Amino acid sequence: MQTRRGVVETPVFMPVGTQATVKGMLPETLRQIGAQIILGNTYHLYLRPGHELIKRLGGLHRFMNWDGPILTDSGGFQVFSLGELRRIDEEGAVFQSHLDGSRHQLTPEKSIAIQEALGADIIMAFDECIPYPADRAYVAASTARSGRWARRCRHARREGDGAALFGIVQGGMEPDLRRRSAEELMAIGFEGYALGGLSVGEETSLMYDVMEYSLPLLPEEAPRYVMGVGTPENLIEGIARGADMFDCVMPTRNARNGVLFTSRGKISIKQARYREDERPLDENCSCYVCRHYSRAYLRHLFQANEILSSVLNTHHNLHYYLHLMASARDAIEAGRFGEFRREFHARRQNVES
């Protein structure tokens, strides 16, 4: 995937840097462990410190000292997450800030303007994230409105700066509505396409079904992005169904809660059985944490509520995710992704209890 700040090899996982930082990680460290592109968030950066301030200070890349590509989420999912604090109509979304209760309106045009001010390399169209479960009439009305918003985003987009605009396929769990949404977006024309409205409480099998019938609808020559997904298993199964891009807070949030990903499954480092365990987290992992620290030490840091616990745990989890994507790319290039996928699942069936 060619961006104005360089090539991104896919499939790719994007660490989430919601508020102009990937929690606990220096930008230099992210580069060292293989991060190619990171994600920022329109809603949060608009509220604090403000997109106009970031623009005056040289844009998001300079502000956070990251010279690689940045994708910004439109803010639609965060507005959806506010529940009763927001109201959605044809114009956009009116919401109360979770910080101070102040009232704001986010429209397709304003979302694009904020993302342009931030200087993102990939800008997402503003859409409504549909909850699950939801009745068909609501899903149909919401999907149609997101389509109209997508056209407004395309018209609002300032051309010529080299940033890419991605459209977001909605439609809930309804195959015909997903198809209709995809066809409408392709008729408008975007540089890439995403699947939204997944990982919102649906069963994993249903998520895979939506990927199965939605991803082939999208053009092969454009990046295909599954938003907000997910577990290592979700990523491998998404790749198998044709996805190129992923993001999720799971590796960073789980790290802060003491849940660590390994080649054989998850470990909850807070468990007492690791109190005297001299082994690394994952003997198959080459990250700095696994080369220098024991499970016993990582448990001690977590139990003592030390800041270093979050730093080391986050480093390991992100390294695991990024290395998994690099391994998947190598397997695809070698023509053995099917074998790689089978081996991945076989190893994780031996997860420690």
TrEMBL record:
Pathway info: tRNA modification; tRNA-queuosine biosynthesis
SUPFAM superfamilies cross-referenced by the UniProt entry: tRNA-guanine transglycosylase
Keywords: Glycosyltransferase, Metal-binding, Queuosine biosynthesis, Transferase, tRNA processing, Zinc
The protein's Enzyme Commission number: 2.4.2.29
GO molecular function, one term: tRNA-guanosine(34) queuine transglycosylase activity
Binding positions (Zn(2+)): 285, 287, 290, 316
Region (RNA binding): 228-234, 252-256
Record's catalysed reaction(s): 7-aminomethyl-7-carbaguanine + guanosine(34) in tRNA = 7-aminomethyl-7-carbaguanosine(34) in tRNA + guanine
Limits of the tRNA-guanine(15) transglycosylase-like domain: 1-349
Segments forming a coiled coil: none
Cofactor(s) this protein cannot do without: Zn(2+)
Example of a GO biological process term: tRNA queuosine(34) biosynthetic process
Pfam families xref list: TGT
GO cellular component terms, semicolon-separated: cytosol
Cofactor: binding details: Binds 1 zinc ion per subunit.
UniProt-annotated binding residues for substrate: 73-77, 127, 170, 197
Catalytic residues (UniProt): 73 (proton acceptor), 247 (nucleophile)
Subunit structure: Homodimer. Within each dimer, one monomer is responsible for RNA recognition and catalysis, while the other monomer binds to the replacement base PreQ1.
Family: Belongs to the queuine tRNA-ribosyltransferase family.
UniProt function note: Catalyzes the base-exchange of a guanine (G) residue with the queuine precursor 7-aminomethyl-7-deazaguanine (PreQ1) at position 34 (anticodon wobble position) in tRNAs with GU(N) anticodons (tRNA-Asp, -Asn, -His and -Tyr). Catalysis occurs through a double-displacement mechanism. The nucleophile active site attacks the C1' of nucleotide 34 to detach the guanine base from the RNA, forming a covalent enzyme-RNA intermediate. The proton acceptor active site deprotonates the incoming PreQ1, allowing a nucleophilic attack on the C1' of the ribose to form the product.
NCBIfam families: Q_tRNA_tgt, tgt_general
This protein's name: Queuine tRNA-ribosyltransferase
Organism: Geothermobacter ehrlichii
Annotated gene: tgt
